[in-house]
Amino acid sequence: MHHLSTFLRNALLLCMVSFSGIVNADELSGANTGWILTSTALVLFMTLPGLALFYAGLVRSKNVLSVLMQCFAIAGIASIIWLTIGYSLSFSEGSNYLGDLSKAFLAGVGEDTLSGDIPESLFVMFQMTFAIITPALIIGAFAERMKFSSMLLFSGLWLIFVYAPVCHWVWGGGWLGDMGLLDFAGGTVVHITAGVAALVAAIVIGNRRGFPQTPMPPHNLTMTVCGAGMLWVGWFGFNAGSALAANGDAAMAMLVTHISAAAGAIAWMSIEWIRYGKPSVLGIVTGMVAGLGTITPASGFVGPMGALVIGLSAGIVCYYATQLIKRKFLIDDSLDVFPVHGVGGILGTLLVAIFASSELGIFSGQGLDVSIGEQFGVQVIGVIATGLYTAILTWVLLYVSGIATSGIRVSEEEEEIGLDVVLHEETGYKM
What we know:
There is one protein chain. This protein is mainly α. Helix content is 70%, strand content 1%. It is built from 15 helices and two strands. Residues 1-25 have low confidence and may be disordered.
């Protein structure tokens, strides 16, 4: 009788626990919701004011307002596009290549609608901040020479025809996600797309007047460093928030993000120190951004020692990529978007296949049962597919935008005067 009662009691407890798990799976988690609310604010903080200040300090004083304006305008237009069709194209079921319009204008997204155990409205907003910063990254490639109207049209079209499909491929139930591509927070979706688009845009639009003979140093490195600090802090929401939960994955993603940023900064600074005898402020903040971009796809899958190697690799590889692009190929990617974000995104997307494995001892990732060789092949496919698709569509959209706005670039005279006055009839500083 005693054994029977014990069996019945344990069976009852098991049923209660099982039922509780079923119920909780459909219930809102206050802890997770609170963390993603915070992360969403942090990611928006990366663009406004982080990226805006970072970029604005790097251009010449006559173009400072134009860069700030572009960041703000993209935040506005990307938000409206995300509301109307962007979210639906990215995250509704659709096909393996693109979502449908079943969630256009956020149809069916209500106050009580959940995505996992957080409000779907919060998931929409969190992903919206990614859709804002990605086209905003591209403006660094054509800073100081693109028409404002052309920039607006191109950015809106690019979000619809490039960002949304790639987002669906990787995170929305598309073919790359089904293949097993590892991209925790946007190595392909954000950094490769933005970086490749930046390279294409720099080539299509052409170099700034006087490049490379005329020096074009940053006009306000203090502004750039302030923006860089905001990016470093905001990136915790970008990567750790992509866990979509307040748990150990988020904590580890935050830790490895910080380690990679620190390693990237020190690596870049050290190279300059050795080569030129003095470390530069511009170098250390650029290395930090390279470390952040490179760890992004790997942040939820690797451990601290893997992050250290990834960060050091980012600082070294991205440094030499900037030298190659500007000095060897003479491509005026004004603010180094491709060599930092594009190359960093590619490097991180490939390295995650190595450091996510459980086969490397202290350098192992978080226990993923993956074969390094097989996973590396999947990552290569993701890099190539994303890069080629982005390059082709970006070229087409630049061409279309140029036709629609009677030329994509300001005149030589307008470029000499500066975009602040020519396009906005304002100046950043009292003359």
